[in-house]
Design goal:
This protein has helices spanning 27-40, 72-89, 112-117, 175-180, and strands spanning 17-19, 44-51, 56-63, 95-101, 122-131, 134-145, 148-152, 158-162, 166-171. The chain has 203 residues and is of the alpha+beta class. It folds into two domains: 17-101, RimP-like superfamily, N-terminal (GMP Synthetase, Chain A, domain 3, 2-Layer Sandwich); 112-180, SH3 type barrels. A hairpin with a 2-residue loop joins β6 and β7. The protein is globular and about 50 Å long. It starts with 16 loop residues before the first strand and ends in a 23-residue tail after the last helix. Residues 1-25 and 186-203 have low confidence and may be disordered.
């Protein structure tokens, strides 16, 4: 088992296929089942998503609120607990592999509180619909007011976006972000590779 520091994740071992036969396919429907399992271990759910076009992977991302990360032991423990619950409830209609991970440094921003917590750091946002001719924004998070997210743009000025209008968002890996996100341990961790000057991150 390997912990990747940076854009990687800490993954629990023993990812096995589960032969689901029930009819739940939307990951939003799985959240009420998964969130209490994480909460029972003192963890907060960050994101649940199903990936893959052939072989499916159910990705469960969680964090320890005290650290914003997960240890490998926490990943393994949560993975086992979720596997037991999912096997019993059998909520997914196709076979899938379960993957439990921590958010990583350049983490996705999935909750309104994430934008306040990471104010001052760079982020990329993809909007559900165009706002002022933009569907993508790149800038420095400037805080939250009510249900609105503010982002300072490189060209100057500030954009304000309703949280509900954001389709997806993630932090941009920078030296400042790395300095603010101290890994829990470097054992078995891979070296962080920074983008070269002028290199754009993929959305």
């Amino acid at each position: 088992m390997t912990a990747k520091v940076g854009s990687g994740r800490a993954r629990a071992a023993g990812e096995v296929a589960h032969p689901g036969v029930a009819a739940v396919t939307a990951t939003a429907d799985l959240t009420p089942l998964i969130a209490p399992v994480a909460a029972a271990q003192g963890l907060a759910l960050v994101r649940v998503q199903m990936t893959g076009t052939g072989a499916k992977t159910l990705q469960v991302m969680a964090e320890d609120p005290a650290t914003g990360q997960l240890t490998l032991e926490q990943c393994e423990t949560l993975s086992r607990a979720l596997s037991d619950v999912l096997d019993e409830a059998d909520p997914i209609e196709h076979e899938y592999a379960l993957e439990v991970s921590s958010p990583g440094i350049d983490r996705p921003l999935t909750r309104l509180g994430d934008y306040a917590r990471w104010a001052g750091h760079e982020a990329r946002l993809k909007l559900r619909e165009s706002i002022d001719g933009r569907v993508r924004l790149h800038g420095t998070l400037a805080g939250v007011t009510g249900e609105n997210v503010a982002i300072a743009l490189p060209s100057g000025g500030e954009a304000t976006v309703p949280f509900a209008a954001i389709d997806s968002a993630k932090l941009v890996l920078t030296n400042k972000l790395i300095a603010a996100t101290r890994p829990l341990a470097f054992a078995d961790a891979e070296t962080i590779e920074m983008p070269s000057d002028g290199e754009e991150d993929e959305d």
